[in-house]
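My main concern about presentation is that the manuscript never shows what a single data entry looks like. For the editor and my fellow referees, an illustration may be useful. For illustration, here is how one protein appears when written out as sequence plus structure tokens:

***
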Amino acid sequence: MQITMKDENEIDFAKLREFLIRLAFMCVYLLFFCKNVMRNQLIRVLQVGEYVAAFIEFLGSETQVDYDNVHILGHSLGAHVAGYVGNYMPKKLGRITGLDPAGPAFEMPYLKDTEERLDAADANFVDIIHTCAGSLGFLRPIGHADFYPNGGTFRQPGCPVFSSQACSHGRSHQFFAESIVHPDGFVAVQCSNWMDFQLGKCDNNNSNTAVMGESISSDTQGIFYLLTNAQPPFGKGKMK
């Protein structure tokens, strides 16, 4: 079962749902936020997280859903809602994917405690895709596996100058959606920093690479970098 949380009107949910259902037989639940929620975010995030956790517990009691099979996708503010869901659950969920988790009010102007944001303790496996880090998105690595495509910051390739932050922020869910139908499209290299990656100092052998997106192995850990194309298909495929 997968639950996706995102601000309304900023992602083609129908396409994402179609891709997920095509991937396997599963239930997909979608949760929308109105844009004004950011103005009252801290209280509302707590409340939404509690409600979603109660809903999952209800499904567990009524349908015997296995919590290990629950995967929550959260973009921006939704990523931290997913973290609250994990905190409220009596048993850990299988996976949370943070799609460019919101930075303002959670990392800036100061870093929130782990109980107040998404972190690696919120699920058995937490993977993060950073695409507007240090601005609209979270800069620090906060999952078991953190991916920084194109360095993880704005301006992401293909994003226009005058809307570079919003476009870059949205690249995270575009990359993830594409990874569902092209599971080998986003191969990343484990590296200590973006500069070393650019200088070719990090080996790209099989033991040092990971696939970003839906098909990532749950035992993946570390910080990973990769390049993408400026337009769909964004994934460059397997490393040469």
User: Anything to note?
Assistant: DSSP finds five helices and nine strands in the chain. The chain has one domain: 13-226. The first strand starts at residue 2 and ends at 7. The CA atoms of residues 178 and 233 lie 7 Å apart.
